[in-house]
Specification:
25% helix, 5 helices, alpha/beta, 271 residues
Length: 271
């Protein structure tokens, strides 16, 4: 599978944003990517303070992305957009097939700071079949929790995508999370971020475990150049299957439940 990770700028004008996406996709067309990944919240500089506008512009963005997917014969993961459902707003990534059909959405589950109380969190991680490959999506802060990528890997996801909106001071930690999730699950990850310095300094990347012999793997991270740019990568989605089965087959699930008496309670514990 050929993957294109788009690193976009934050722009006030919606048409400028959409034209930038169109230009990047057109530029990469001759390299025949199978799937494009966009960042989280690329449709608004300040979505939480302009939620109605963010929802309206997300709807427009999805329609344009559907046309682009069909025109270029490539799937598009629309990043983290703002979708209204039953009077509540979710952050969700639309999964758009190469014929322009929205085949599903992955909602953001682990909300970050101000999003709590404003955004409705999702309830489950899902897998999607895209061009014969089973993929999973974790949106931005979802990556922090190891259970997220592990859940998708155990559901036989072959590639994980991470649309994100990471500030400059968090980029190093973000890259570390990506490397660790890739290594511990023996799975490729692709991550998209924004370029709008000084607040957002890009760092969009591909991360893949590379075999160094004797069952030793190290994660290799290839980063986009500064500016509005892209990372193109080709991955054999089946190459790590046996290494993944061997590593995860050694788990002992019954040993991982917390002993009674612990004081750290998760949001969903007890429900």
């Amino acid at each position: 599978m050929k993957v294109a990770v788009l690193q976009l700028a934050l722009r006030e004008d919606q048409e400028e944003r959409l034209k930038e996406v169109e230009a990047l996709i057109k530029l990469l067309h001759n390299r025949e990517p199978d799937i494009f990944l966009l960042p989280e919240a690329w449709i608004s500089p300040d979505p939480l303070n302009n939620l109605g506008r963010a929802v309206a512009e997300s709807n427009v963005a999805i329609e344009r992305l559907q046309k682009l997917a069909e025109e270029h014969g490539a799937a598009i993961l629309g990043g983290g957009l703002y979708l209204a459902r039953e009077e509540k707003v979710h952050v969700a990534c639309p999964i758009i097939s190469s014929n322009g059909e929205v085949i599903g959405f992955q909602e953001k589950i682990h909300l970050y700071r101000r999003e709590n109380g404003i955004i409705q969190r999702g309830e489950a991680f899902k897998t999607f079949m895209v061009k014969g490959v089973k993929i999973g999506v974790v949106i931005c802060h979802d990556l922090v929790y190891p259970e997220a990528v592990r859940t998708l890997t155990l559901a036989d996801a072959q590639i994980i995508f991470n649309p994100a909106r990471i500030p400059s001071h968090g980029k190093e930690a973000w890259h570390l999370y990506l490397k660790v999730r890739s290594l511990e699950n023996r799975i490729p990850l692709y991550a998209a971020n924004l370029w709008s310095p000084p607040k957002y300094s890009g760092g969009s990347c591909s991360v893949k475990p590379i075999h160094y012999g004797d069952e030793i793997y190290l994660p290799e991270l290839i980063e986009a150049r500064p500016g509005v740019s892209a990372v193109m990568d080709e991955v054999d989605e089946k190459a790590l299957g046996e290494a993944r089965r061997k590593r995860l087959g050694g788990r002992i699930p019954h040993a991982y439940y917390a002993p009674s008496g612990g004081t750290i309670i998760g949001i969903g514990d007890g429900y």
